[in-house]
Write a structure and sequence with these properties.
globular; 21 helices; 513 residues; mainly alpha
Amino acid sequence: MVYQLPPALSIKNLDELPSSINPSGDDLSSKPKRTPSIDSDDHLDNFDDILEYYVHSFGKYQLVQFLLLCIPTITVAMHVMSWTFVSLEIQESSIQNSTNTTEDDTNFSIGFKQDMNGKNSWMKATVQSLYYIGQMTGSYFCGVMGDKIGRKKVFYIAIVIQSLCGLLLCVAPNWWLFAILKAGTGFSQPGIFGVAVVLGTELVGRRYRALGSVAAGSFYAFGEIILAGLAYLIHDYRLLHLIISLPSILFLSYWWLIPESARWLISENRFQEADRILNKAAKMNGSHIPENWWRKMESCAANKTSNSFSTLDLLRTREMRKRTLTCFFIWPVSTMMYYGLTMKSDIGGGNLYVNFALSGLMEIPSMILVYCLIDKVGRKPLVSMGLLTAGLCLIVNWIVGDSIPTYAAVMQTMIAKGAITVAYTVMYTYTTELFPTILRNTAVGCCSTVARIGAITSSCVALWLVDTYGKLTMVIPFCILAILAAAACQLLLPETNGKKLPESISEVEGNHI
C-alpha cells in the first residue's frame, strides 16, 4: 500500500517552521529561523494541529507503531475463528472412536472428544457463544478502563490474558472448561484489536485516521487465511492452539515498544509525558516540535472545570444519545453478518477450508477499497452501501438456489463478505470520530460490547439453526436487518470526513466535528 503525502498546508508564518516539515516544499534555509512563539502560535492549543504542523501526520514513527500494533491482531483472528475447525476435529475424533473401539486413545489422553452431531449440535454454538460473551465483557471493561488508566495498560493486560488462556486451551480436559477458556481469549480480543484501532487513530493526522481500522483489519484477514491453512494441515486441535498461542508470548515485549497515547495523556493533563512521546516521534520523522509547546494547552486546561465522566455520559445529552443508540444498532448488525458469513463461508456450497481462506482473502481488497474511498466518498455512504450489498447478495443467493454453478454461488457469498467487511471496518474509524476524546475508548468499548449480541446470534444461526432448519434462517433476518441498519446510518449520523476529532461533549453537542 502506497501512502500519499499530505497536501500543501496553508498556514501563517511559514518561515517559522523547520525546513524539514515545510509543507510548500520551498527552500527556506536562506531565511532566518526562529523558534515558534508559544503565546502567538495558533497551532499549539489543538492536538490535531500540533500533530500535522510539527510532528507529521504520518511518518516513519507512525508506520513503525502501526506495524507493532497490528501484528497481534493476526493471533486475535485465529483465536476468534479457530472453533469453526476445532469443532469439526473434535467431532470427527469422537465419531472415529465410536466406530473403532480398538483404536488407541493415547492421542487424546490430554484433551477431550465430544459428539456434536444431531441433538448435541447446540454444543458447537454454545462454545462459540461463550467466546462472544467473553468478548462482550472484555469490550466494556477494556473500553472503560482504556479511558481511565490508559490505552497501553489495557492493551498489555489483554495480551497477557490471551497468552495464558490460549496455552491452557491445549490441555483442557473437557468441553465446558475449553469453553470457559475460550471465553477468556474472547475477553482479551477487544483489548488487543479495539485498543490497537484507537491507538492508531489517535496517533495520526486527519487524513490518515482510517488507517487504524484498515491496517488492523488487513492483518486480521491474514490471520484468517493462515488459520485456514493451519487447520487444513493440522488435525490435532491441541497442537493447532499451541501454534496460534505461542506468538502471544513474544508480544509481552510490547510494554517497552508501545508508548501511551499522547492524545489521551493530554486529555488527562499529563503534558510532560506527552511531550516526551511527541518529541521522540518528531525526531524519528525528521521534524521538530517547539519547546514547552504544551504550556498553552496547560493554561487552557487550567481554566476549564475539571469533570469526571462515566458511561452514562454517552446517553445524557441529545446528540450523544442519538449517536450512541444508532451505533448500538449498526454495530450488532454488521458484526452478526461479518461473523455469520465467516463461520458459514460454505453456505453457497464448496469446500469449507477453501471458502474460509477465500473469505479472509476477500477482506484485503475490501480494506484497500476502504482506504482509497473513505476520504473521498465519506464514512456514511461506505457503511450504508456495504450493508445493503451484503444483504442483497444473500437474497440473490437464496433465490437462485442450486440453479447456478457452485463457483457462482461461492462468488456471491464472497462479494457479500467483502461488502460487510467494508461496513464493519469503516464503523471502527467512524465510531472513534463520532465521540470525544474523554469518552472515545469508552464509546468504542460499549459499541463493541453491544456488538457481541450480533456475534452470539451469528454463532447460533451459523452453527446450529442453518444446519437444522436450512439457510433461510440466516438469509432473511440478515437481509432485513442490513437494510434497516443502512437506513439508520444514512439518516441519523453526521458525516465526519475531514473534521477534527471532538475533544469534549460540548463540541459534539454543537456539531463541531
